[in-house]
């Protein structure tokens, strides 16, 4: 299940045009896997300019990436998802949305979350065959570098006429 979870993160990061350094299902006691990617926010963005368009768009990109793991895992096998699987991802999402809107605006946070969740479900659905290809490669290799991941994605999309933007 970790392979689909991490593949979901990786493919979502690719659709958001973030550089991916590595993705792995080599787990530890806290996590079943991980993905390391470029952050679309600078550390000071949320602190000094949480209302700027650049900050909002960067946070939304990160949120889609965070949401995609559990969504992909759930699409692969709904019964495999436990609360603990996406706990760190959900915490990151809530932290970003609270920073954007202020913790006191819960209804706005919830509405923004629902919108991003819908967008992410559409991304996962559209790129499901790519997620399956990445998950399969993760099951074979356990860890993929960004370069290897790019090759897997390129192979999985080579028959497509449209780019990832289309």
TrEMBL record:
GO terms for molecular function: ATP binding; ATP-dependent peptidase activity; metalloendopeptidase activity. InterPro entries: Peptidase_M41-like. Gene3D superfamilies: Peptidase M41 (1.20.58.760). It comes from the Bacteria. GO terms for biological process: proteolysis. Keywords: Plasmid. This is Uncharacterized protein. It comes from Agrobacterium salinitolerans.
